[in-house]
């Protein structure tokens, strides 16, 4: 495959994932990592290590870091005419709208977002938030799939999916990002890719809770499988293609997040099983756990659409309604029998 050399890329958001993606892409491109906290960005520059969000993964010498928003945008506005630069949005879903507001009216290239979830309050998917704020003039894509930041930063093998309604942008992102140990597939089902990436976080809280309660490996496999059925039902109601949920952004990310202890969402579940309060868990985590706000947004959406989502209901009940986790697990098992594919 033809690799584009030294394309200019700006990553907006210097958390764990933005930093890991910037590290991976800096091996082949001219990458600038922007973070909103000037003191933190100075510390990263001084240590050449993001000690707050991704400690122990030195930044390559070529990777530039900055807290200057104008400079970050100028980086991707100054490319040669034959290059299309890339703007990567690496904030959590809660930060997407505010970040997009900062971009509105500015001259920006193609945007690719990495966040996984439904927006709290609106239950919108990221591409819908992008369309609301920027309109459809800027081509956009979601990059998703099973990808723990720490492993990507170490250069371990990883496969992702880029989803966009623009074929040209999908091809562009593949040409830029595919290579070394990153394998990038493409897909035109933006809704399916985003729904899979969002709801798997809720399922990871469920499996973490189940594992923490000692309910066993059989229960975990059941939760993952029925979780996939639940994700698929919601996705189909929103217009997704069923096959997408068998792919990297569906089953792939669901398996990773439900079983891998690097998952922050799984760790939320493990801590809930210990009886910790949600506020304590979130404070101790020090990172976003998208499954928490997403459980509420998905519950609201499922009610609105009439989609049966018992695992999401159970997770939201434990997180927000003070329902006891062990009782919730028993409640799930006590549901009436049904045909498996339904
Ligand atoms: N960490 C991982 O392994 C992966 C994370 N993701 C997704 O990427 C998104 C970001 O996750 P992480 O970087 O891991 O979270 P994190 O909790 O490690 O860092 C979040 C970063 O976003 C910044 N931020 C928050 N609101 C912002 C705003 N309005 N403007 C600019 N920056 C803002 C914070 O300052 C912080 O630097 C989430 O949606 C997550 O689900 C996706 C794949 C892998
Ligand atoms: O999305 C992820 C892996 O693909 C990261 O999951 P967590 O946010 O649960 O750590």
TrEMBL record:
This is Glycerol-3-phosphate dehydrogenase [NAD(P)+]. Keywords: Cytoplasm, Lipid biosynthesis, Lipid metabolism, NAD, NADP, Nucleotide-binding, Oxidoreductase, Phospholipid biosynthesis, Phospholipid metabolism. Belongs to the NAD-dependent glycerol-3-phosphate dehydrogenase family. One of its GO terms (molecular function) is NAD binding. Residues 189-326 form the Glycerol-3-phosphate dehydrogenase NAD-dependent C-terminal domain. Catalyzes the reduction of the glycolytic intermediate dihydroxyacetone phosphate (DHAP) to sn-glycerol 3-phosphate (G3P), the key precursor for phospholipid synthesis. It is found in: Cytoplasm. It comes from Massilia aurea. The gene is gpsA. Pfam families: NAD_Gly3P_dh_C (PF07479), NAD_Gly3P_dh_N (PF01210). The keyword Cytoplasm applies. GO terms for cellular component: cytosol. The active site is at 200 (proton acceptor).
């Amino acid at each position: 495959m033809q690799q584009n050399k030294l394309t200019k890329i700006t990553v907006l958001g210097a958390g764990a994932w933005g930093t890991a993606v910037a590290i991976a892409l800096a091996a082949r491109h001219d990458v600038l990592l922007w973070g909103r906290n000037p003191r933190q960005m100075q510390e990263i520059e001084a240590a050449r290590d993001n000690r707050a969000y991704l400690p122990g993964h030195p930044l390559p010498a070529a990777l530039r870091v900055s807290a200057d928003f104008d400079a970050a945008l100028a980086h991707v506005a100054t490319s040669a005419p034959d290059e299309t630069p890339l703007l990567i949005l690496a904030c959590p879903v809660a930060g997407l709208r505010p970040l997009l507001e900062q971009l509105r009216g500015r001259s920006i290239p193609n945007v690719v977002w990495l966040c996984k979830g439904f927006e709290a309050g609106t239950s919108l998917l990221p591409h819908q938030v992008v369309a609301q704020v920027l309109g459809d003039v800027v081509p956009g894509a979601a990059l998703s799939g099973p990808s723990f930041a720490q492993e990507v930063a170490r250069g371990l093998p990883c496969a992702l999916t880029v989803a966009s309604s623009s074929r040209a942008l999908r091809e562009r992102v593949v040409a830029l990002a595919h290579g070394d140990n990153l394998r990038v597939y493409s897909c035109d089902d933006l809704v399916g890719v985003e729904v899979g990436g969002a709801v798997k976080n809720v399922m990871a809280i469920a499996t973490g809770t189940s594992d923490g309660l000692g309910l066993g490996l059989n229960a975990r496999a059941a939760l993952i499988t029925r979780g996939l059925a639940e994700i698929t039902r919601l996705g189909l109601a929103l217009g997704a293609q069923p096959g997408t949920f068998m792919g990297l952004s569906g089953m792939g990310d669901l398996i990773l997040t439900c079983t891998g202890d690097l998952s922050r969402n799984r760790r939320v579940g493990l801590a809930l099983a210990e009886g910790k309060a949600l506020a304590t868990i979130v404070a101790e985590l020090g990172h976003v756990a998208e499954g928490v706000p997403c459980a509420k947004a998905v519950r609201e959406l499922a009610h609105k659409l009439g989609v049966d989502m018992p695992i999401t209901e159970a997770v939201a009940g434990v997180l927000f309604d003070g329902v006891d986790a062990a009782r919730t697990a028993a409640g799930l098992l006590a549901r009436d029998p049904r045909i498996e594919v339904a």
